[in-house]
Each structure stands twice: as C-alpha cells, then as structure tokens.
Amino acid sequence: MRDLGYRWGSLGTGSRLNPHWAVMQPPPSPLDYVLVHELAHATQAHHTPAFWRLVERALPDYEQRKQRLAGSGAELWLG
User: Fold this and answer.
1) How far is 19 from 46, CA to CA, in rounded Å?
2) Is the whole-model pTM more than 0.85?
3) 79 pLDDT exceeds 60?
4) Pairing mode of beta strands 9-12, 16-19
5) Using CA atoms, how far apart are residues 54 and 48, in angstroms rounded to an integer?
6) How many domains does the chain fold into?
7) Residue at 1 is within a domain
8) Which pairs from 35-43 meet CB under 8 Å and 24+ separation?
C-alpha cells in the first residue's frame, strides 16, 4: 500500500503491485478493478486495445467498475 497521489495503483519494478491506500476504502468491486488493471500492466505496458481486452478477460464488467471508481474518487479523498 502506498500513497500514489492521483493514481489508484501502479506496477513497479519486478512486477511489484503497488495499490493506493485509498482503494481499500471502497467496496471490493472497485478494488478488484484496480488490482486487475495494474496486473494487466505486467504483460501490456500501455493502455492499448490489447491491454483492455486483457482486463476484460478477467473482469467482463470492468467498464462499469471503472466508472464507479471514477465517480467515488472525491468521496475517497475527502472522506
């Protein structure tokens, strides 16, 4: 867990997963999205169509989860 500023998570050196501490506050659905998103970067460095296909394989409803997370951002920071 790290304070990553505006990012929900990152994949660091050696494929180390670094979730933002705030992702532990929402329900598991957004957390699942953040983890899958960052783990997808282990094989796809950029947000290309191939990246999003990989995310979709793990979470077919990733778009709704992504939107829900974007909508809850202010609440998480101002909580």
Assistant:
1) 18
2) no
3) no
4) antiparallel
5) 10
6) 1
7) no
8) 35/9, 36/62, 37/8, 37/9, 37/62, 38/9, 38/10, 38/11, 39/11, 41/11, 42/11, 42/15
